Amino acid sequence: MIRPGNVQGFRQQSGFTLLEVLVAMTLIGIGFSTAFVAISGSRRLSEKTLAHESARILARAKLDEVLHSKGNSLTDDGVLDHYAGQAFGFQIKVRPVEMPFPDGLNKNALPFVLEDVSIDVYWGPTDSQQSYRLSTMRLVPKSGSTVAQGRQALSSPGSRTP
Q1: I need a labelling partner for 102 at 20 to 30 A (CA). Which of 32, 89, 138, 156 fits?
Q2: How far apart are CA 101 and CA 113, in angstroms?
Q3: CA-CA distance, 118 to 67, in Å (whole number)?
Q4: Is the pLDDT of residue 3 over 80?
Q5: Number of neighbouring beta carbons within 10 Å of residue 65
Q6: pTM over 0.70
Q7: Contact between 87 and 122 (Cβ < 8 Å)
């Protein structure tokens, strides 16, 4: 008599076939490769974000130095600075801004000059160099104006404020 599950004397075995194991290993391999691609992409994105944030901080610091310096004493020295494992260079541009004046108004009568101050920070290899620009405007007293003379008198070492 033949029992159910035992066809013609063959014994039924439990377990997985070779094909099932190969399919499972293939699916696991695809899952791991997808995870590695996602992790390496997030690492690259993190490095780019860090470089952009470092460039922004450097640009802000250099802009503050220019705005608080007398004249234009801060210049780019052509040397790369290293921050957060990345080499950064910067270029400072200070240009006077030409403003349109209505008829009858003499622009030389104004005691100030409006300047455009911009800082360009750059990093990366020369063939794919990235950059960040930060710019603002400032009012600078003219050298012969009474405002500039009053400022100079207040900033001299022997001066006192009333």
Answers
A1: 138
A2: 13
A3: 11
A4: no
A5: 13
A6: no
A7: no
